[in-house]
C-alpha cells in the first residue's frame, strides 16, 4: 500500500504539469487582453501611440512581453511553492485571495458530497430490492427527471418560489450568514450558516444524487445475483442481514470510484451556484477573474482545483481496499 501511494503521488507531478499547461494555453488563446482590461483601453484605441506605449510598459511590468514558454516556466517555478503571483485586478497575492475563498467552497462541496452519499445509497438499495415494482419505476422516473434539470435553472426556481421571490420567503438567498449573527453565539451562527447553505447545497447535490443512486442500484442488482448471496439466504439469514451485511459492502466499489469524479464536477458547478447565491467562494472568484482577464488568479484557481481533484482520485483508490479487503496494491 505504501509503495502504491508513493507511485500515485509521483504520478500527480506529470498530471499536474499537463493540466496547468493546457489551462495556460487555453487562457492565452481566449479573446481579450488583461492589459487592455486593466487600463480600460478598448480595441479601437489600441493604435493610439500613447496608448501603445502605456500597453507595452504594462506588459513589461507584469512580464507579459516575454515569449509564452518563458511565461509558463516562470509561473510553474513559482507555483511549486504555491506562489501564483499577484492579481492583475487588485495586485493582491493570488494565494491570499484563494485562501480566503477555498474554505467556503470546500465547506459547500463536502456537505453536498455527504448529502449525495447518505441519500443515494439507501435509494439504490431500495430500488434494487424492489426492482421492477411500481415504487421503483416511479423513483427511477423521478431520478431521471432530476438528472435532466440544469442546476442554474433549479436555483432560479428555488429563489422564485422559496427565497422571497413571488411566493414563499423561507430560505435566505444571499451570502453565508445573516448580518450580525456572529454576535448571537456559536450555535446560532452554525444554524444560520446551515440555513443559508440549504438552497446552494440542494442545487449542487441533486445531479450527483441522481447519478450515484443509479450506480448504487446497478451495483446491488449485480451483487444480489451472486452465488454467495443465494447461499446466505439458504442458510436462513434475514433479508436485512443479507442486504446490508453481505451485499452492500461488495456493491460499493462503483460508488467509491465515482468519489474521485464527484469533487471536480461539484467544483465546476459551484462557479454558477456561488455566483447566483452571492457566496464568496472559489467559484465566484473564478467567475470574476475570468471577466477581468485576471490570468494569475485563473491559473491559481485551476491549479488548486486540479490538485484537489487528483487527491480525490487518490483517496477513492485507497478506499477500494477498505471496501473490499481482497484488493491488494502490492
What would you note in describing this structure?
It is a single chain. This protein has two domains: 31-81, no CATH class; 101-323, MetI-like (MetI-like fold, Orthogonal Bundle), CATH 1.10.3720. The chain contains 13 helices and no strands. It has helices at residues 2-29, 34-39, 49-62, 68-79, 94-129, 134-148, 151-162, 186-223, 227-234, 239-250, 253-276, 282-291, 295-323. The protein is globular. The N and C termini lie close together (6 Å). The mean pLDDT is 81.
Give a short summary of the structure.
Helix content is 74%, strand content 0%. The chain has 330 residues and is an all-alpha fold.
- The DSSP helix count reads 13
Unreliable stretches covering 5 or more consecutive residues: none
Tell me what the CATH architecture of the largest domain is.
Answer: Orthogonal Bundle
Strand content: under 5%
Query: In angstroms, what separates the terminal alpha carbons?
Result: 6 Å
- Class of secondary structure makeup: mainly alpha
User: What is the C-alpha radius of gyration, as a whole number of Å?
Assistant: 25 Å
**Quantity of strands, as a count:** 0
Q: Which series of helices and strands comes N to C?
A: HHHHHHHHHHHHH
What's the CATH H-level superfamily name of the largest domain? Answer: MetI-like
CATH top level assignment of the largest domain: Mainly Alpha
Number of domains: 2
Overall spatial form: globular
Mean pLDDT, to the nearest integer, reads 81
Helical amount: over 70%
Largest sheet: none
CATH topology of the largest domain: MetI-like fold
Amino acid at each position: 500500500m505504501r509503495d502504491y501511494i508513493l507511485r500515485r503521488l509521483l504520478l500527480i507531478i506529470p498530471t499536474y504539469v499537463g493540466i496547468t499547461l493546457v489551462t495556460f494555453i487555453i487562457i492565452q488563446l481566449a479573446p481579450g487582453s488583461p492589459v487592455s482590461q486593466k487600463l480600460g483601453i478598448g480595441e479601437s484605441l489600441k493604435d493610439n501611440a500613447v496608448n501603445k506605449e502605456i500597453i507595452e510598459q504594462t506588459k513589461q511590468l507584469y512580464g507579459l512581453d516575454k515569449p509564452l514558454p518563458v511565461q509558463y516556466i516562470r509561473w510553474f517555478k513559482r507555483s511549486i511553492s504555491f506562489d501564483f503571483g499577484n492579481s492583475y485586478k487588485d495586485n493582491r497575492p493570488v494565494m491570499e485571495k484563494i485562501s480566503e475563498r477555498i474554505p467556503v467552497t470546500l465547506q459547500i462541496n463536502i456537505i453536498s458530497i455527504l448529502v449525495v452519499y447518505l441519500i443515494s445509497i439507501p435509494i439504490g438499495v431500495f430500488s434494487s430490492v424492489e426492482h421492477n415494482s411500481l415504487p421503483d419505476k416511479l423513483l427511477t422516473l423521478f431520478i431521471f427527471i432530476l438528472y435532466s434539470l440544469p442546476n442554474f435553472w433549479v436555483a432560479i426556481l428555488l429563489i422564485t418560489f422559496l427565497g422571497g421571490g413571488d411566493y414563499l420567503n423561507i430560505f435566505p438567498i444571499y451570502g453565508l450568514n445573516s448580518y450580525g449573527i456572529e454576535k448571537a453565539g456559536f450555535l446560532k451562527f452554525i444554524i444560520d450558516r446551515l440555513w443559508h447553505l440549504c438552497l446552494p447545497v440542494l442545487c449542487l447535490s441533486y445531479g450527483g444524487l441522481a447519478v450515484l443512486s443509479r450506480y448504487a442500484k446497478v451495483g446491488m442488482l449485480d451483487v444480489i445475483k451472486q452465488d454467495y448471496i443465494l447461499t446466505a439466504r439458504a442458510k436462513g439469514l434475514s433479508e436485512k442481514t443479507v442486504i446490508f451485511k453481505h451485499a452492500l459492502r461488495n456493491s460499493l466499489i462503483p460508488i467509491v470510484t465515482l468519489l474521485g469524479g464527484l469533487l471536480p464536477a461539484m467544483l465546476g458547478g459551484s462557479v454558477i451556484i456561488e455566483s447566483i447565491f452571492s457566496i464568496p467562494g472559489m467559484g465566484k472568484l473564478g467567475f470574476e477573474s475570468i471577466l477581468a482577464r485576471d490570468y494569475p488568479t485563473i491559473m491559481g484557481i485551476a491549479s488548486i482545483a486540479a490538485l484537489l481533484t487528483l487527491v480525490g482520485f487518490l483517496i477513492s483508490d485507497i478506499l477500494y481496499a477498505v471496501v473490499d479487503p481482497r484488493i491488494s496494491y502490492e
